[in-house]
Predict the structure.
Amino acid sequence: MKVLRYAMLACVGVSVAGCMQSETASRNITFDGPLLTAESVEMRPQSYRLTDVRVNVPQNLVVSEANSIKPRADIVWRGDIGLDRHNQIKRLVEEAAARGVETSEGELPVIAEIELEKFHGLTQYTRYRFNGDYDIHFSLTLRDALSGEVLEGPRQVEFSIDSPGPRAVTAAEARGYTERMFVLDNLSPMIAAELN
């Protein structure tokens, strides 16, 4: 038993010795560069003040007008009249983001660039029969409003907005509360939170 104990102590001693083979302690290393001072470090404000939002909805995003449960497409939208879905989504996101501009109170003036990648809303079939959700993806870039320098991004942003059930949808529309109003009211604070 004593032999086993001595063998174990010897192993521990060897392993500890292996960790201590540094010839120079790092506390003795000298630094020849200039010292950092408050004047030598560019101090950026901690918050942004949004001055403009630029939204791009690429024309190569695929639109579906199929009235199925979940069409395979980049853009599915029924909240506006007409078939120019790219422009409808652009206006919707611009309007939602504009509310973020109104509440922005930071220090550094910035421009937000939003490039839509996916706006998958609900078809009529899904909206009036199931509880679906709106799936929205875009890339976000923040630029210095004066210099144009990229401050953040591009980074991916994804939102999911749960739709009320069919009965709630029908009751809301009877009161004049449209699908566009619903999406705008839910999307605006989400975008504002990302921009601020």
